């Protein structure tokens, strides 16, 4: 999608961190934006900031793990902004710690938001993009943890590996409709991700793990607006993967060399 001005975007998890950075950079590129988040006040505050830059913007409440809520988000976006062309399925949470310490509630919460949110976003919005017949772009937020796994991140990486797989399949399915699918794979970004528990539902409160071990890395991460710039470039070029940390090239090189070496054993 080269021509972005006047198009409409929806961004989940738009109230904070990477989602807010994406919203800010999409608005700077001239898109109208539906800022959607479980934190409705935060979404409205970001939308108000975007309106000051001259675009139309809505702050909307959504729980991405709840399909009905995502359908309502799509309905309102189309009704109030006149269509939808860019969908950023970005809302996410983290639970760290050893697999053996994770509770059933940990699994349900992480998979419901990180994977269920992307499933709902894709299955609700993709048919509308197809029906609209104007092409478009879906950007699913995974992580470098969607391609590389390490200790203490089994729940998170399970959800993010699944997002990578879903996105690759969907990219091939939607290409004939001129709808691109990009997988966003950031490393550390300075956001509130480590305090994701602030949005944890009461019925899934039994926690076995925590994400404190990741705090120092996240707090020393890159600015979320830089990720927003990468996303806008990725949308313009229909990038299959959007990487934000060039220094990870060597890490990936080592990883995939070891995968290829397994063919020789
Ligand atoms: N920060 C990093 O280092 C990093 C690295 C790689 C990937 N990511 C991914 O980036 C995405 C954004 O996270 P962030 O780092 O900006 O964290 P963040 O906590 O600053 O923002 C996440 C947003 O998602 C919202 N949210 C949580 N649960 C929700 C739900 N059920 N429905 C709707 N909204 C919900 C939160 O209210 C928040 O506004 C996540 O998918 C995360 O996994 C982050």
Description of the structure:
With 265 residues, the chain is of the alpha/beta class. It has one domain: Rossmann fold (3-Layer(aba) Sandwich). The protein contains 8 helices and 7 strands; from the N terminus they run βαβαβαβαβαβααβα. It has helices at residues 17-28, 40-52, 67-81, 104-132, 154-174, 215-219, 224-237, 249-261; strands at 8-12, 32-37, 57-61, 86-89, 136-141, 179-185, 241-243. It has a 7-stranded parallel sheet with strand order 3-2-1-4-5-6-7, sandwiched between helices. β2, α2 and β3 form a beta-alpha-beta unit. α1 (17-28) crosses α7 (224-237), α3 (67-81) packs parallel to α4 (104-132) and α4 (104-132) packs parallel to α5 (154-174). The site of nicotinamide-adenine-dinucleotide has 32 residues, from α1.
- Globally, the shape reads globular
Terminal CA distance reads 43 Å
CATH architecture tag: 3-Layer(aba) Sandwich
* Overall structural domain count: 1
Which band does the percent of strand residues land in? 5-15%
Oligomer: single chain
Alpha plus pi helix count: 8
Protein topology:
Elements: E1 8-12, H1 17-28, E2 32-37, H2 40-52, E3 57-61, H3 67-81, E4 86-89, H4 104-132, E5 136-141, H5 154-174, E6 179-185, H6 215-219, H7 224-237, E7 241-243, H8 249-261
Parallel strand pairs: 1-2, 1-4, 2-3, 4-5, 5-6, 6-7
Helix pairs in contact: 1-7, 3-4, 4-5
Bound molecules: nicotinamide-adenine-dinucleotide.
Nicotinamide-adenine-dinucleotide binds next to helix 1.
